[in-house]
Specification:
α3 packs antiparallel against α8 and α12 packs across α14. It is globular, with a radius of gyration of 22 Å. The protein has helices at 17-20, 46-51, 54-61, 65-78, 108-120, 143-148, 172-178, 196-203, 215-219, 258-267, 299-304, 371-385, 389-392, 396-407, 423-431, 450-455, 492-496; strands spanning 86-88, 95-101, 126-130, 158-161, 236-240, 243-247, 274-278, 283-284, 287-288, 310-315, 321-327, 333-339, 356-357, 360-361, 366-368, 469-476, 480-488, 500-507. The strands form four sheets. An eight-stranded mixed β-sheet has the order 1-5-6-7-10-12-11-15, with no helix packed on it. Strands 4-3-2-16-17-18 form a six-stranded mixed β-sheet. A two-stranded antiparallel sheet has the order 8-9. It contains 17 helices and 18 strands. It binds fe (ii) ion.
Length: 509
């Protein structure tokens, strides 16, 4: 396989355990990029949980995201943003771009991605951050260490779509950074007392009054002319080369408003091949999540309609890599990708059951980290946290063997010495939810996804390489799009030569 930047190919996690980042290895140089002091996000900290309450308030008292988004869009239109929200770039017919999802925790895993990202992104025209630019609540003060600093050496524009975390302060900081320094929205009149909206407003988290005072200084880190990007709002399209890339904003609760839905239908027309970027992946963890549009229909109705000519739909939100090649009614294959592994804490893949969805089976499905590595990672994490290392910690070979048995799938890595699957291995695999969807709680098992990140600090000292992070490079020609998923482990070997964990070439004709 050739590399645009001329480096030889290195082992991936599909080849060897070393390629996955296991074993004694030289640590990456990424720490030199980090600020001297890193404020670690702790999801155990009541202040973090309280600050991130708007998602829960939106589900209890009604979701105001659609209305707020409409106000942002109107403000941008009044300021001269194009009515069709299309960014018209002048890249040649053959060009490349990067996609990196769920970046902004500002901690080791985010910075560990940066050296490999900079190597692989050489020659690319721009990058897109696919949701959750800033954790925990999208504050302007966090953009320095979680956006401008890590990507200061990427010499091309970065566009973004917001994720739920960016919405926790009503998107104000995101709009300032990505939408031409958009000023705050004017305060609205208070809702009728004792109404649901009134209660919500009463409890709503808002940015700190001094938030963002130093944003201009932070921007200096990405102030070169080649790095500048202005997007017309939180959702947009980019026409460039032979394709149209469409970024949608799925807000706090993973839905889109009627106005955005109408726009999406409009920009989806025509024969130009299209790539969707969304904060809510349409296929994830072996399930179909079509993403409702307010007023009827779904995003996937639009994306999968043959006349709209989508070739890929890439979603953030879930912090790993997954790919589902779904065959459409017209015989084409649409690549549904999850690409949220760009910085924030890793979400498990070993909980993904044996895949059978929309005609996609285990043989077609790809994920990173491999399920066995994900199980070994979580078993070690639990072993450390519960001080039961000897009981919990699985080797990567044990992880692979027990996953293969439980899911009835073949080994995903070239097998080494035979591993006997003991009762202990089976018990740990069951406790950690191997092969059962994260939202199913029928069996006794320990939390490994949402609840885990709330109970344990993902940034705790126990979180060390391999980090199992990833990002995408897409190479576009008039004939095809080549999509590659690259890994970042936190180790030097993969930093110097990021392995390709998955690759697919999508024809455009
Ligand atoms: Fe996220």
């Amino acid at each position: 396989m050739d590399r645009c930047y001329g480096a030889p190919v290195s082992d991936s996690s599909r080849d060897t355990a070393t390629g996955a980042g296991w074993g004694a290895a030289d640590p990456g140089a990424y720490r030199q990029l980090m600020p001297g002091r890193v404020e670690k996000i702790s999801w155990l900290d009541p202040r973090t949980l309280w600050a991130a309450r708007n998602g829960a308030l939106a589900s209890w008292f009604g979701d105001p995201t659609g209305r707020t988004r409409g106000r942002w869009v109107a403000q941008r239109a009044a300021a001269g943003a194009p009515a069709d929200k299309v960014i018209r770039r002048t890249d040649p017919d053959t060009f490349s771009f990067m996609v990196i999802g769920d970046t902004g925790e500002g901690d080791d895993p985010q910075y560990a991605v940066v050296p490999g990202f900079l190597r692989v992104s050489q020659g690319t025209s721009f990058a897109v951050v696919a949701s959750d630019v800033i954790y925990p609540v999208g504050s302007a003060d966090d953009y320095g260490t979680k956006f401008f600093r890590p990507y200061r050496d990427y010499q091309a524009p970065i566009y973004a779509i917001p994720g739920n975390h960016d919405w926790y302060e009503d998107l104000g900081a995101f709009m300032r950074v990505f939408c031409d320094d958009a000023p705050p929205l004017p305060t609205e009149p208070a809702p009728r007392p004792l109404s649901r909206a009134w209660l919500r407003t009463l409890l709503w988290h808002r940015p700190h009054p001094t938030d963002g005072q130093h944003l201009a200084d932070m921007r200096e880190l990405r102030s070169a002319a080649a790095q500048q990007a202005v997007q017309p709002g939180p959702y947009w399209a980019i026409d460039t080369g032979p394709v149209r890339i469409i970024g949608i904003d799925t807000g706090l609760l993973g839905t889109i408003d009627a106005e955005q839905g109408a726009w999406l239908r409009e920009v989806s027309r025509g024969p130009r091949p299209k790539i969707l970027i969304t904060g809510s992946p349409l296929y994830v963890d072996g399930e179909h999540h079509p993403c409702p549009v307010e007023g009827g229909g779904t995003v996937d109705d639009i994306v999968s309609a043959p006349e709209h000519h989508y070739v890929a739909a890439i979603g953030g939100d879930i912090h790993n890599y997954q790919r589902y090649p779904v065959r459409l009614a017209d015989g084409r294959t649409l690549q549904y990708v999850v690409a949220g592994g760009g910085g924030a804490f890793m979400h498990a893949t070993h909980t993904i059951p044996r895949v059978s969805v929309a005609g996609v089976t285990e043989g077609d499905f790809r994920c990173y980290p491999l399920r066995g590595d994900s199980l070994a990672f979580y078993s070690r994490l639990y072993g450390r946290r519960l001080r039961l290392r000897r009981f919990f910690a699985l080797t990567e070979a044990e992880g692979q063997a027990v996953v293969a048995e439980r899911l009835g799938i073949g080994p995903t890595r070239t097998p080494g010495a035979e591993v006997r699957v003991t009762r202990r291995l089976r018990l740990i695999a069951a406790l950690l939810g191997t092969g059962s969807r994260p939202d199913r709680r029928k069996r006794l098992r320990l939390p490994v996804r949402t609840i885990y990140t709330q109970l344990f600090s993902p940034s705790s000292a126990t979180y060390s390489p391999p980090f199992f992070k990833c990002f995408l490079r897409l190479d576009v020609t008039p004939q095809a799009v080549r999509l590659r998923c690259y890994a970042a482990t936190g180790n030097l070997a993969q930093e110097l030569n990021p392995p390709v964990e998955d690759e697919v070439t999508i024809p455009l004709t």
